[in-house]
Amino acid sequence: MPRLDIGKWIDSGITWLRENLDWLFDFIAKVVDGMYEGVHDILSAPEPLLFAGILAVIAWWLRGLVAGVVAFAGFALIDSIQQWDEAMETLSLVLVAGFITIVMAVPLGIWAARSRTVSTMLRPVLDFMQTMPAFVYLIPGIFFFGVGVVPGAIATIVFAMPPSVRMTELGIRQVDEELVEAAEAFGTSPRRTLVRVQLPLALPTIMAGVNQAIMLALSMVVISGMVGGGGLGSSVFEAISSVDVALGFEGGLAVVILAMYLDRMTGALGERVSPLGRRAIAKRNAAATSGLGVLQWRPATSLATVGVVVLALVAGGMNVFGEDEKGPQVTADVGKGRSLNIGYINWDEGVASTYLWKEVLEQRGFKPKVQSYEVGALYTGMAAGDIDVQTNSWLPVTHESYWKNYRDKLDDLGSWYGPTSLEVAVPSYVKGVKTLEDLKGKGGTFKGKIIGIEPGAGEMKLMKDKVLPGYGLDKEYKLVSGSTAGMLSQLERSYAKQEPVAVTLWSPHWAYSKYDLTKLKDTKGAFGSGDRLHMLARKGFAQKEPQVAEWMKGFKLDEKQLTTLEQAIQDAGKGNQQQGVRAWLEKNPGMIDKIAPVAGAEAKGKQAGAAPRIGYFPWDEDIATTYLWKNVLERRGYQPSIKQYDVGSMFTGMAAGQIDVEFDGWLPVAQKQYWDKYKHNLVDIGAWYDKTSLELAVPSYVKDVKSLADLKGKGDRFKGKIVGIEPGTGEMKLLKDKVLPAYGLDEEYEVTSAGSPAMLAELERAYKKREPIIAVLWTPHWAYSKYELTKLADPKKAFGENNEIRSLGHKSFPKKYPEFYGWLKEWHMTEKELAGLEASIQDAGKGKVEEGVQKWMDAHPGIVDKMAPVK
User: Fold this and answer.
1) What angle do CA 464, 467, 471 make, to 5 degrees?
2) Is cis: bond before 861, omega within 30 of 0?
3) Where are the transmembrane segments (predicted)?
4) Which letter does DSSP use for residue 520 in this model?
5) Strand pairing class (641-644; 693-699)
6) Residues near 243 by Cβ (< 8 Å), separated by ≥ 6?
7) Which residue intervals of 694-752 are DSSP H helices?
8) CATH of the domain spanning 339-595, picked from 3.40.190.100, 1.10.3720.10, 3.40.50.300, 3.30.40.10
9) What is the mean pLDDT of the segment spanning 823-846?
10) Is 0.70 surpassed by the pTM of this model?
């Protein structure tokens, strides 16, 4: 029997329709999406418990007091399990799809009831629509309408329509023919006969069809969560793909509550709209005068309407006069509220990178919407323009087939992580299996199974098409498809029992840190070269959002950053991805500014606008730190002024309140005399650098001079000169008053005092000529990394104890600048940080201190948040 390519014919037909009737599908999509947005805005506007009250009043009106109480309890439970927003999305979609279904199905049912020919033609079509697996309707829905709400609604309409058509036809056909004949005998027109006789009598059956249509619509809406339909379907789909029992049960429970409410209410509505039903309700109300009979009393339509209106007005008043819900912190309003759609595959690195970008974009003023998709639906949706960007494209190998199909409709924004690797892994307790070749002949050990992930994943396609056949394993092993979470669940279960198991994995993955696993070597290279994780965007996205595209092109994470981000999300728990990202960002300050740099985006301090006066010495560490703090303070909105002083003037001016703060107090030794003199008018803010030392140094080519004692008798070699720094510094005073006399050098050597720059210039000149020189130096200092110098040992400890570098201020400083004071108390720098900052300033060249500081800050993202945190 020759094969009939029915599938290809259908595919060709769908392609033709899409190419020639695209305008019609766009129109349908706009109508359906507009209806959905309108309904959803209404349902999501009130506070959850107020809207639950409205739904409870409706239930009381239709079914009685008990039904109202139970309805309120059910919807309150949905709110308590944090599924309210998803439930309202689902209810909106059900109502829209149900309304369209009924509007189309009832007339068709009436037509079929009045025409045998139409009934005969409709029956096989309805059989096809009702028996075709529900998932199949999603495929043409995606092609015609992309991903999101619309394809889910269209598929729902098609799936839910048959029972309503059938029940409408059945209800009208069951009307007693004698009644119809009697109406016609009195001269009633066919239209009036239908409206006044047939429809009222058929109404209970028609309402039963409406009830079934709504129930089927609800079931299909849940399935549509796979293609981005949102709502409870997304919760259930996420739970299935991640094997999350808690989320699955909560999402399923919300579906059950919603289904029971819609079922009971649509059933009771049939009684309300039927004349016979209204008479029965009136009799029950008359009998409900006392005892338990009160529970059967139902309010009149007017009273129920008043209750609903009052609750709606209260809800509206709360939205008008109540406080707005606190949204995410916007650090730079680049987006101006523009929305972006980000799709992701429910893999760890996809979840982590997507929610990181969600937080980044929210802080930059955008309103991103994130939605998980099956791999094929994600690429199809991006190609159709329904999804703006995704962060987790594994190229060039894993997602090669999708890229080939859609590359003309997508833009590659570049890779942000790599290289990766795909592999099969087994627990390390499985002996004798080190390569993929070792699996051959051991199918019995692994029960003939390799546990895989999502069936549409590129790794699964590679496994089926190349890896298993390449190693001759395709006949011996079955590749079990499911989900990433299902694979990890099986790995955990087998590992706990020490059972053999083979799973598809990839690197990086946190499973390798949790379990002791063996990556099976791919000796034939069947998996191909390692992938990189790419950012992909729909065609035209970079033109629409050039700033976002630029950020994404520059986005990078290393292995440590990615794995710790994944772990932070794991620690936060299911449903708390954003909290996990924020916890990670707190440990990685400055990442937002690094990922999405915006001039002036830093948060302003509480005292923004304040103008502290900062003094500094012309010493390298003081210049470096003063200009660093100037930059930081300006980013926090302060207006600092800086001015250079010699040591004596600095302490005098600070004690008089003319200088607010300085960062280069060498205590307890080098500047002891100044501290002792002015300490009553000063405040010691604290040390920011430890383990300093004061010393004399000579070039290493000067032999036989290792200590201060070795200088005695060698004055002629050094021309009787020690090259010093500023005359008012503590080190110069110590040198003259204690060090030189202690070693008997005060008569033999003269100390020059032209300043630190002059000392360094003299050192450089002598070093080039390889001339002997003695320089006054201290540690830390960049000169030790530029030149080979010998620190002369101080065996007599004449220089005294090692100093700390401390921030000092006028006594009014803590009260005048409490925020700045708090930052300085917590500020510390390491030797590597300080040396790097000084070197960056040196490299920038003379007169370019601020450029050098900025370059160092660029190389240390997060330094502003670290030095001056703003809550």
Assistant:
1) 120
2) no
3) 49-78, 90-114, 134-160, 201-227, 239-262, 300-321
4) P
5) unpaired
6) 483, 485, 486, 488, 489
7) 730-734, 740-742
8) 3.40.190.100
9) 89
10) no
